[in-house]
Amino acid sequence: MLLAALFLTVPLAAADWLSGTARTVITPEKMVWMAGYASRTEPARGVLQDIHARALALQDGEGQKYVLLSVDVLGFPADFSRAVTGRIQEELDIPRANIILAATHTHEGPVVGNNLRVAYRMGDEDMEAVREYTGILEDKLVKTAVESFAEMVPSRLSFGRSEAFFAINRRVIKEDGIANGANRSGPVDHRVPFLAVDNENGVLRAIVFGYACHNTTGRGQLYYNGDYAGFAETALEEEFPGITAMFIAGTAADINPYPRGSHELARRHGEELAGAVRKAITGPLKPIGPGLEAGYRDLTLRLEEPPPEAEFREKLDDENVFVRRHARMMLDRIESEGSLSRDFTYPVQAWNFGNGDLTLVALGGEVVLDYTLLLEKAFPGSDLWVAAYCNDVSAYIPSQRILSEGGYEASGAMLYYGWPATFEPSVEKMIMESVSGLINAEK
């Protein structure tokens, strides 16, 4: 009874949209290496929970098509993202700006492509299994996106927010630097933004929801699952049969779940998140008017000057295996390309719904929370939803504050992602100007 009446608290407006959904299991059939933790020494052992790709298709009154894909993986390397979105563009005849490819950032999914290759102790056979899976995943994502347009129905969109409280800032400032822990006084965002899609009779069809918190509750176990986000998606889909529940991660690079360390905690956090959505979705929501303006840019960020070649050669004998592996990668790159490039291609994207009713910003990489706070300060009074881990997840994206403080999010992670140096201090200014330009262009 609850499902059939979910939106009776909201006046029914005209059905300004067409929508469709699709869902595909992407759990590897073979046990391939898992993404996210350098401490793993073997591939996955089994499946705790199937992982999925979920798609929401939208079409506005002018016939423009848009698709949002939420995928239970750590992230996408740039070449993989280009391949997937390029094929979707061709299949659906839509521009690049109309496609958002979002990773849930679960740390208990498979490795995709060459992402974080420095971190993984894979042999040739393991890497071949990852290459094979990556090709299968590419086909599945394209197929899921196309299938989401197969059965479109008149729909309405509504926006709301709720709260969940298991996120905590993880950057603990100590005399000797930044440690990974629980900083109860650090910035955190407990809000849960969500987009509800219901048919013209007010029956819920899909929920897209977010949260700014790392999907790391399991802490590197060896059984595929979507971590707290996957459990939240499953809980909502089980409670409301027939809907598609899609998680998109917020700017969570410096935010962890608390407590963490087990699958039971992941399930508990997922149930809390699903409960937050469930509680808010039955109340008054903000209707989203017709029309969607989409913008996309590939921004060129700059890295600091890389160390000299001799320094990398010295590190080939370092006691740390990851430092050695990174040095070998840098030297191979110098040999093949002649030098180490300082350019970093960075995707920024924005969808403006209903002429300002809601602006969804989709940022690439592992973005720190500061960017949500900075953008909300730059656009006061706007319903702004800032997502990360979208389109290309090839590095941590620090703010100017975090660059000055240092630590893993500022520089340490660049080693595992295979970059020769940290970002220049201009990174925050360039991203803010680019995103602001997209938002202002769509108004």
Structural features, described:
The chain has 443 residues and is α/β, with parallel strands linked by helices. It folds into two domains: 3-298 and 347-406 and 425-442, no CATH class; 306-337, no CATH class. The chain has helices spanning 78-92, 124-147, 227-239, 263-281, 309-314, 321-337, 370-378, 400-405, 408-417, 427-442, and strands spanning 17-25, 46-47, 52-59, 65-71, 99-103, 153-163, 167-174, 177-183, 191-199, 204-211, 223-224, 244-249, 255-257, 286-288, 292-302, 343-353, 358-363, 366-367, 384-387, 396-397. The strands form five sheets. Strands 1, 3, 4, 5, 6, 9, 10, 12 and 14 form a nine-stranded mixed β-sheet that branches. A four-stranded mixed β-sheet has the order 15-16-17-19, with helices on one face. A hairpin with a 4-residue loop joins β16 (343-353) and β17. It is globular. The two termini are 40 Å apart. The relative contact order is 0.15. The model is unreliable at 1-12 (pLDDT under 50).
Strand content: 25-35%
Note the overall shape: globular
Rg from alpha-carbon coordinates: 21 Å
Taking the sheet with the most strands, its summary is: 9 strands, mixed
Short description:
The chain has helices at 78-92, 124-147, 227-239, 263-281, 309-314, 321-337, 370-378, 400-405, 408-417, 427-442, and strands at 17-25, 46-47, 52-59, 65-71, 99-103, 153-163, 167-174, 177-183, 191-199, 204-211, 223-224, 244-249, 255-257, 286-288, 292-302, 343-353, 358-363, 366-367, 384-387, 396-397. It has 443 residues and is α/β, with parallel strands linked by helices.
